[in-house]
């Protein structure tokens, strides 16, 4: 399941009209707006990125929408895949994947200044 927040930009005079469309739709959930700036916040959900992008395109096609930008995204499936990659990576010390070790007990002895330069 993917969940993403979208900021819709429109002219202030069209804010209420677009909110009404979003509230009546089956492709997004309305949460907040600023009528003075013409910004509207909605969320979309999808089984995968393709479904989310299809919903975002529907938002972009609403009359008077200037743009719709994805601001935050959460994906359960991708998170699990990335966690598994980290767990299998030889560059990650075993202690970091050991659930019996408390984070407070891990002592860092490296030097980030050398990594940044």
UniProtKB/TrEMBL annotation:
Subcellular location: Cytoplasm
InterPro entries named among the record's database cross-references: Chaperone_NapD_NO3_reduct
Predominant location: cytoplasm
Annotated Gene Ontology cellular component terms: cytoplasm
Keyword field: Chaperone, Cytoplasm
One Pfam short name: NapD
GO BP of this protein: negative regulation of protein transport
GO molecular function: signal sequence binding
Record text on subunit structure and interactions: Interacts with the cytoplasmic NapA precursor.
Chain's role: Chaperone for NapA, the catalytic subunit of the periplasmic nitrate reductase. It binds directly and specifically to the twin-arginine signal peptide of NapA, preventing premature interaction with the Tat translocase and premature export.
Family assignment from sequence similarity: Belongs to the NapD family.
HAMAP family assigned: NapD
Protein name per Swiss-Prot or TrEMBL: Chaperone NapD
Organism: Sulfurospirillum diekertiae
């Amino acid at each position: 399941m993917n969940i993403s927040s979208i900021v819709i930009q429109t002219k202030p005079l069209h804010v209420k009209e677009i909110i009404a469309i979003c509230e009546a739709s089956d492709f997004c959930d309305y949460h907040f707006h600023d009528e003075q700036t013409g910004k509207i916040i909605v969320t979309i959900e999808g089984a995968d990125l393709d479904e989310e992008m299809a919903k975002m395109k529907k938002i972009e096609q609403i009359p008077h929408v200037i743009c719709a930008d994805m601001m935050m995204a959460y994906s359960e499936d991708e998170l699990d895949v990335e966690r598994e990659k980290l767990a299998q990576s030889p560059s990650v010390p075993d202690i970091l994947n050991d659930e019996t070790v408390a984070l407070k007990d891990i002592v860092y002895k490296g030097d980030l200044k050398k990594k940044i330069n």
